[in-house]
Amino acid sequence: MPSFSPASGAGASVSVDAHLERVLAGVAPLARVERVPLADGSGRTLASSVDSRVDLPGFDNSAMDGYAVRRADVATATPLHPVVLDVVADLPAGSDADPVVGPGQAAHIMTGAPIPEGADAVVPIELTDGGTARVSIGAPPQAGHHIRRRAEDLSAGDRVLEAGVVLDARRVAAAAAAGLAELPVAGLPRVAVVATGSELVEPGGPLGRGRIHDSNSLLLAALVAEAGGLVSERLRLPDDPELLRDWIEGREPCDLVVFAGGVSVGAHDVVRHVLADLGTVDFARVAMQPGKPQAFGTLPGGTPVFGLPGNPVSVAVSFEAFVRPALQRLLGRHDVVRPTWPAIAEIGWSSPARRRQYMPVALRVRHGRVLARPASPGGAGSHLAAGLAAADGFAIVPELVVDVSAGDLVEVTVTR
Ligand SMILES: Nc1nc2c(c(=O)[nH]1)N[C@H]1C(S)=C(S)[C@@H](COP(=O)(O)OP(=O)(O)OC[C@H]3O[C@@H](n4cnc5c(N)ncnc54)[C@H](O)[C@@H]3O)O[C@H]1N2
Ligand code: MOO
């Protein structure tokens, strides 16, 4: 009687969380740190926390174009009985004049100019006659009105940005306002992206029978860049173990290698064969759909390596679930997994039992509610590469749910 054992290399079945834990245990933040000018900082990851060099604002200053006054002088002002003051100074922003406003006096002041000594409120120009030598004030200001106080935003020495945050326009601007000119950022993880398969043809190339255009290497390279990595190599290799071994031996220095394709149990799944021979790569059947066959471990020299299943949607999902978190860890970022948000399923679909489903979904907002529908009319097929174009993210359907009905709440991770 014939006996069957699970196809060799298929690996044990593990949960998504357990596999992610194994992956994260296999990567550590890179030690390389660079200092970059603020203008080059956006998209980089802050390597160590930074503190303000200055008080912010640096001095009490006007929030309005108008007149700096002594409140007591204008306490009785009304539109019918305005108070008239002598204008003793004209203070544009940036003025280094240091006048004193005495009783019965005012200073013409612009937004951002330092409040002169003696003044304790600013009257906007609209509530005056706009006079130059003398000004008529038609209403009393409140105490401190329209004065922006020194250090009300930050004091010198206060924390501006925490290590591990991703720099963006707002954080770069905050650093500039806090007196910093450059920032320490994590070195970019260098990632080699290798699509394998003898059926692959370069995008746009002529297709013979059984051949397809390689989309995975483009997908992975763009995902790596979006996640903050640097693509050190992007290539296609046919299903030839010798070529694969040669590439592994002669590869450019990098911090991570991502293979796509050839990790399943087929006769020509050479990534699995070659990586399995190394003895440093684990193969797992992860309880997810798509993305079930997964490989992770190290190449000679210790470089972490992923072997992702070759179907394009499986690549996109595996990247989101495992490779992106690993890249975030290499960068020293804190939140390695993106948050999920509730959305309402617009139509129903089914999900496999005991597997966490990652359904590519298109999102839209109707009447203040976020609606999610499968991005591809074909649904969950992991070969539906073109459907990815419409995907704004993935609905993550828990292992125990087998049916999503129209109107159900689903958790969505937004990737766009
Ligand atoms: N007997 C079994 N067969 C398969 C199983 C299984 O458990 N038992 N699992 C299936 C699942 S699920 C997946 S996913 C795939 C994964 O297989 P591989 O990682 O070996 O991927 P390939 O066979 O190389 O390719 C799968 C599919 O994707 C296309 N592909 C590959 N590379 C690219 C690329 N760069 N651009 C676009 N499309 C690509 C390839 O032509 C195949 O159609 O295994 C199942 N089989
Ligand atoms: O698990 Mo495969 O990755 O579904 O298509």
Could you name the key traits of this structure?
17% helix; 5-stranded mixed β-sheet; Molybdopterin biosynthesis moeA protein, domain 3; Molybdopterin molybdenumtransferase; Molybdenum Cofactor Biosythetic Enzyme, Chain A; binds molybdate ion; 416 residues; 7 helices; 7-stranded mixed β-sheet; binds ligand LQZAQKY5; transferase; molybdenum; Molybdopterin biosynthesis moea protein, domain 2; alpha/beta
Description:
- This protein is an alpha/beta fold and 416 residues long.
- The protein has 4 domains: 12-32 and 188-330, Molybdenum Cofactor Biosythetic Enzyme, Chain A; 36-56 and 154-186, Alpha-Beta Complex (Molybdopterin biosynthesis moea protein, domain 2), CATH 3.90.105.10; 61-148, Molybdopterin biosynthesis moeA protein, domain 3; 341-414, MoeA, C-terminal, domain IV (Beta-clip).
- Helix content is 17%, strand content 31%.
- The protein has 7 helices and 28 strands.
- The strands form 8 sheets. The protein has a 7-stranded mixed sheet, sandwiched between helices. The protein has a 5-stranded mixed sheet with strand order 8-5-7-6-9. Strands 22-25-24-26-28 form a 5-stranded mixed β-barrel.
- Strand 24 and strand 25 form a beta hairpin.
- The two termini are 53 Å apart.
- The model is unreliable at 1-9 (pLDDT under 50).
